[in-house]
Amino acid sequence: KRHLISAADLTRDDAVLILDTAEELARVADRPVKKLPTLRGRTVVNLFFEDSTRTRISFEAAAKRLSADVINFSAKGSSVSKGESLKDTALTLEAMGADAVVIRHHDSGAPHRLATSGWIGGSVVNAGDGTHEHPTQALLDAFTMRRRLTEGEGTGRDLAGRHITVVGDILHSRVARSNVHLLSTLGAHVTLVAPPTLVPVGVEHWPCEVSYDLDAVLDKTDAVMMLRVQRERMNAAFFPTEREYARRYGLDGQRMARMPAHALVMHPGPMNRGMEITAEVADSPRCTAVEQVTNGVSIRMAVLYLLLGGSEPAVATQPSTTP
Ligand code: CP
User: Fold this and answer.
1) 269 is in an annotated binding site
2) 51 to 48, 73, 105, 290, 316: CA distances (angstroms)
3) Is 233 annotated as a binding residue?
4) Residue 296, ligand 1, Cβ within 6 A
5) Which residue's C-alpha comes closest to atom 5 of ligand 1?
6) Which tens digits make up the pLDDT trace of 81-111?
7) pTM of the predicted model, to two decimals?
8) What region, left, alpha or beta, does residue 187 occupy, with left being phi > 0 and alpha being psi -120 to 50 degrees?
9) Do 163 and 260 belong to one domain?
10) CA 172, CA 167: separation in Å to the nearest integer?
11) Is 185 a catalytic residue?
């Protein structure tokens, strides 16, 4: 494949290849020299029209660990604020020789437009578009679950048959959409839990179940993924009070205690502490939020390598230090 636009486009084999490649690349982080020469001479552009901390920084770290040149573009402070279009911005980047463009955009469909427009010749990676998809987030979430939930199972570990619960603002969540697609492709059972006003129209066609009762599903879950309530995308009339939301859909210590002992608490970040998750839960050893960020670098290295790396092995055999 040339682009990564949607988790829905990934077959099981595609997804497993990315997860296995990320596993191999994660080992580089344990080496004294964390850099690989694999993408030397290639240019990766991070094109961010919307704010980001984790995704932007980890794509930059991933590209640099593969020795690519990185150009960071933020719409704030650029000629976008003077009205420059996506097309003219893309043509400008193309003129600078971008081999891959990692794009975050407030409009659902912007990465697809970029990939199919002919404005740029390189690969396009969706780093989150509107309320549509965030495929590398779903991949790093699956990577984290696979590592934690199948520890000690050796090769061929998978998430088939696991029960994953995704809780909160499903309506506005590209993370939820991408996770539903990817996790169902990997054979997991996904249950979405949300207030009725935060469930998207047409969810009955998604490969998952829907519940409005968090307490009813917690004891059967292998991982619970708490979502940020996206007030910035929301009409106030849609939303219960913060206190009511936290009482019915927030994860606190008491609820966490009802989960199976092995079950994970996940959050893509940024978190609204005190709303969808209490500080006690966010800071507990069962919460993988920080580990997810670490794993995001390996996943993004794998995606860039598989799109741009060609026939070079992801990790060359290290020269032996023994005589
Ligand atoms: N999870 C995530 O996409 O975080 P950022 O918005 O900080 O990139």
Assistant:
1) yes
2) 7, 11, 9, 19, 35
3) no
4) no
5) 52
6) 888 999 999 999 999 899 999 999 999 999 9
7) 0.94
8) left
9) yes
10) 12
11) no
Residue 136, annotated ligand binder? Answer: no
For residue 218, being part of any structural domain is answered with: yes
Domain residues for 179? 135-291
Q: How far apart are the first and last CA of the chain?
A: 42
Written as one letter, the residue type at 193 is V
For ligand 1, the distance from its centroid to the CA atom of residue 127, given in whole angstroms, is 9
Instruction: Determine whether the annotation assigns residue 196 to a binding site.
Output: no
The response to whether residue 128 sits with its C-beta less than 6 Å from ligand 1 reads yes
Q: How many Å lie between the centroid of ligand 1 and the Cα of residue 55? A: 5
Look at the chain and report how many structural domains it folds into.
2
Tens-digit pLDDT profile for residues 110-136: 999 999 999 999 999 999 999 999 999
Spatial strand order of the sheet with 43-48 comes to 69-74, 43-48, 100-105, 123-129
Q: How many CB atoms lie within 10 A of CB 155?
A: 5
* Active-site choice (134, 146, 163, 267): 134
Opening angle at CA 53, ends 105 and 72, nearest 5: 65
Which value does ipTM take for this structure?
Answer: 0.98
21, 38, 43, 55: which is the annotated catalytic residue? 55
Same-domain status, 26 and 53: yes
Asked if 308 and 100 count as a contact pair (C-beta separation under 8 A), the reply is yes
The CATH number of the domain holding residue 75 is 3.40.50.1370
76 flagged as catalytic? no
Contact 287, 267 (CB under 8 A): yes
Cα gap 62→4, rounded to integer Å: 16
CA dihedral 267, 272, 273, 274 (to 10 degrees): -120
Contact 86, 101 (CB under 8 A): no
The partner residues of 102 in beta bridges, in order of sequence, read 46, 125
